[in-house]
Amino acid sequence: KNQVEQSPQSLIILEGKNCTLQCNYTVSPFSNLRWYKQDTGRGPVSLTIMTFSENTKSNGRYTATLDADTKQSSLHITASQLSDSASYICVVSAQSGANNLFFGTGTRLTVIP
Amino acid sequence: NAGVTQTPKFRILKIGQSMTLQCTQDMNHNYMYWYRQDPGMGLKLIYYSVGAGITDKGEVPNGYNVSRSTTEDFPLRLELAAPSQTSVYFCASRRDSGGNGELFFGEGSRLTVL
After folding, report:
1. Which of B105, B109, B110 to mutate to test the interface with A (most CBs of A within 10 A)?
2. Which residues on chain B are in Cβ contact (under 8 Å) with A89?
3. What's the confidence (pLDDT) of residue B95?
């Protein structure tokens, strides 16, 4: 069964600290994995995409990793800011089909001053 | 470039009423989706469409209907609203299912059924 699990469910950190969010998946055949950021009251927006051959990709203070062998991805946020407070959703695409997207339930990150 | 536009942003319905959530995209995307998001839960697929005239059920289609008469528009119809349909609804689109097709989301429509 194709599933995506994220941990932790929620996280509170102090401004300026680092944190790492986890995403484990069982989607097969795997095509790619995206991390989306969803601000409160807004729609999700893509942060980064990881394909099978990519291990690490950075987007500013966000660094995503992918281990295709263990089917795990992480999103590391460096020097957190108050604006990083949001839900982070991991979405895994299978290789074919219009309905080929599998969503994690998200990690709710709160950055406090 | 407006992207994906949803209306209304907020709506309160009485049990048994009907309404239509509107969604339009200006990116000429073939694929469009409707999701619902309940508090603390992930996004669940209601219906999707791969092009004008083609729609299919997702994970939670009961109580909803859709149509896709044009590439741009993908309205979601709620018939006989029930409290269980209280949720935030997101419309999304992408070019196709291949490659690294990014999903573009609307801002959401918050529906309360009392």
Report:
1. B105
2. 42-43
3. 87
Task: Evaluate the CA torsion angle A46, A50, A55, A57 in order and state its sign.
Answer: negative
* Nearest by Cα to B28 from B106, B98, B96: B96
Would you give the DSSP letter of residue A29?
Answer: S
More confident residue, B100 or B10: B10
Instruction: Report d(CA A84, CA A67) in Å as an integer.
Output: 24
Q: Which residues pair with B10 in a beta bridge?
A: B110
User: Closest to A104 (Cβ–Cβ): which among B40, B42, B108?
Assistant: B42
Measured distance CA(A91)–CA(A75) in Å, rounded: 12
The string over B50-62, giving b where at least 16 C-beta atoms fall within 10 Å of a residue's C-beta and e elsewhere, is: bebeebeebebbe
Identify the CA nearest to B95 among candidates B29, B39, B17, B42.
Answer: B29
- SS3 state of residue A42: coil
Please give the structure tokens belonging to residue B27. Answer: 């990116």
Question: A79-95: per-residue pLDDT in tens?
Answer: 999 999 999 999 999 98
Q: Residue-wise over A61-95: b if at least 16 C-beta within 10 A, else e?
A: ebbbbbebeebebbbebeebeeebbbbbbbbbbbe
**Any CB–CB contact under 8 A between B42 and chain A?**
yes
